[in-house]
Design goal:
Blueprint lengths: L8 H21 L24 H7 L7 E2 L4 E2 L6 H4 L3 H10 L13 H14 L3
Helix pairs in contact: 2-5, 4-5
Length: about 130
């Protein structure tokens, strides 16, 4: 005979499932390698990202899975909305290089030139 479940246990199981699923989505999406390649040459990122233009690096590094940026048609809701924050290139460079919180560091996946390019791009187009 099955044991009776405690009141609210179904709600707890549902909440736990949603929390685990959300965590997996965060870690699977952020910085995931997009199968589409821009064909741009240059850069030496370890994730197979060869783009050299900031807008293409933003796309190839899958930044849109977490961030909103209208210029890139990105509508992510996990990380900060870059159009609202309007970060400087130096701020973007710091976060992209080292990561923070749920954002992974990209220093091992993007070259210094690629990080600078995407930082300049975000700073230039955020809020437009």
């Amino acid at each position: 005979m099955p044991l009776p479940s405690a009141p609210g246990s179904a709600l707890l199981r549902t909440f736990t499932l949603l929390a685990v699923t959300g965590s997996v989505a965060v870690f699977a999406g952020c910085g995931g390698d997009d199968a589409s390649d821009s064909g741009d040459s240059g850069g030496s990122g370890d994730a197979g990202i060869t783009a050299t233009s900031g807008d293409q690096i933003f796309k190839d590094a899958n930044c849109s899975s977490c961030h909103t940026l209208a210029a890139a048609d990105a509508k992510g809701a996990i990380g900060p909305n870059l159009d609202e924050v309007k970060p400087s290139a130096d701020t973007v460079k710091e976060y992209v290089t080292n990561g923070e919180g749920s954002m992974p560091a990209f220093s091992g996946r993007l070259s210094a030139a690629q990080i600078q390019a995407v930082s300049d791009y975000v700073a230039e187009v955020a809020g437009q």
